[in-house]
Write the structure tokens for this entry.
Amino acid sequence: MSDRSRNWWGWGWAEEALGDDEVAGLAQMVRERFADRDFSVIPAPDIAEVGLAPPRVDVPAALSGLVRTDDEDRARHTYGRAYRDVVRAVGGEFAHPPEMVIRPGDEADVVSVLDWAAEAGVKVVPYGGGSSVVGGVGATIEDAPDGWVSLDLTEMDRVLEIDEVSGAALIQGGALGPGIEAQLKAHGQTLRFFPQSFEFSTLGGWLATRAGGHFATGPTHIDDLVESMRVVTPAGVSESRRLPGSGAGPSHDRAFLGSEGALGVITEGWMKIRPRVGWKTSAGVEFTTWNDGVAAARELARSHLQPSNCRLLDAGEAQLSLGVEVGALLVLGFESAGEPLEAWMQQALELCFEHGGAAPGGVTTSSPTRDEEPVGDAGSVEAWRSAFMRAPYLRDGLIRCGVLIETFETACVWSDFDELHTQVTNDVLSALRGIVGDGQISCRFTHLYPDGPAPYFTVMAPTRRGSEVAIWDEVKTAASEAIGRSGGTITHHHAVGRDHHRWAQTQRSEVQRQMLSATKERLDPDALLNPGVLVDRA
Ligand SMILES: Cc1cc2nc3c(=O)[nH]c(=O)nc-3n(C[C@H](O)[C@H](O)[C@H](O)COP(=O)(O)OP(=O)(O)OC[C@H]3O[C@@H](n4cnc5c(N)ncnc54)[C@H](O)[C@@H]3O)c2cc1C
């Protein structure tokens, strides 16, 4: 049994959330950046004071063993974990919580829940780790006027079978990242899919959102690791065959990858696994200018080297996460189960040096025999990794001080990148100046392809208490319009949810919209599943 509990209003473990003193320290730091603003700290919310409306739907007798209706569980399942979600939770705003949380133990339970919901006219929102940052796991009153339930799949958390000959594992949809890795480790295997939200997100959630993992090049999306999937839809069960590849018509798995709980519940997937990594090498490469870093990143992406980590941070990101002053910082890494990587790192570094890069911390390496004690001191890489994992807890603390802090992401072809970067930066800064008078935006690359990067932006600004969500909506609209205008996608890996719906719709052609609607109507004729997501409301 874990002695830690999940935070019901913010990120991660309740015990890891920043204490009042730490939040006060953050407020002091922010005052130095944004002078003359009110960064007084508001207390963390108390569930006893929130007062959720009672459930509007009776607990179905046949499912009662799977149901919880206590305020804390319902509050935790009301929102995902975007800035706007945490703002509303900290403010005690839970206007439309789920009537109940249902935790199926197996696929038969999932079928029973969908059958009951169809009869009762109640909407069902599949819920994995609840780490959605796009409004994927809640419901508005328009979406579910007669009530909704949160279908929490985390009891379905097992690795059911391993095929070591083919290198694949059958994993249940509700398994969280650490549970998957612990079960595979017993067989010397790994999925090696590490999104920043790894600890608190599930296989089913990754598949349903087409999540992006830690590989900066190569198998960036979870899509690349799927062999087959099993999905319970209101119209029946869809199961694809286990095949390494197939040309037999359109891929059925593709219809469910990115379906965001609106077409069915992903109960299992055969996933491609690999032997555990033994060799790793990393380095932090500093550039004098952002443009030099971008040129080096582009060449690396177009080379044969395929670094596993290749995250370029601009000056603002490097300052924010590491407190270092550089034009740009490239966090570079290679990993392998089978061979030393120094030669690969050397080639990558030479390429960076040609663009004016320098690696003052040298190279850190670890091998199967000295895995616990890496040799070398690429200090900026380790510092970046730990800041990266701690960032969501800091974000929640900053929200309690009245800071607007949020991220958004996209992808575009290299030939559009400069224009996209300029337009997004200018439009967001001008929106911030117009609305709150100050603010900053920074950029990093999370994933890289030979034909383009996936830029990821962080916005930080003072905000006004009580108007936080409306202010962010305006800034986000400016950002999303600029992205659309300059050739980017509304999301590279965060998914669409409710927040990106209108921009995702404009990104689709009329025929594509009709294909999606027809699929929804056929698989979910009563529109039970995650209403308001993927297709327009009826
Ligand atoms: C701090 C932080 C860091 C993040 N880092 C990353 C990152 O590095 N990469 C990345 O891609 N994303 C990231 N995200 C976003 C989020 O973690 C991903 O979208 C993730 O894939 C969601 O998984 P989940 O299990 O939490 O799903 P949830 O948030 O519970 O659900 C997400 C969507 O999937 C649906 N869904 C969930 N489970 C199922 C299922 N079994 N069957 C059908 N539908 C289902 C839900 O209905 C919802 O629409 C981050 C979010 C936060 C807050």
About this structure: Residues 11, 80-81, 125-133, 136-137, 153, 173, 195-197, 201-202, 204-206, 208-209, 211-212, 260-261, 265-266, 392, 493-495, 530, 533 surround flavin-adenine dinucleotide (CB under 6 Å).
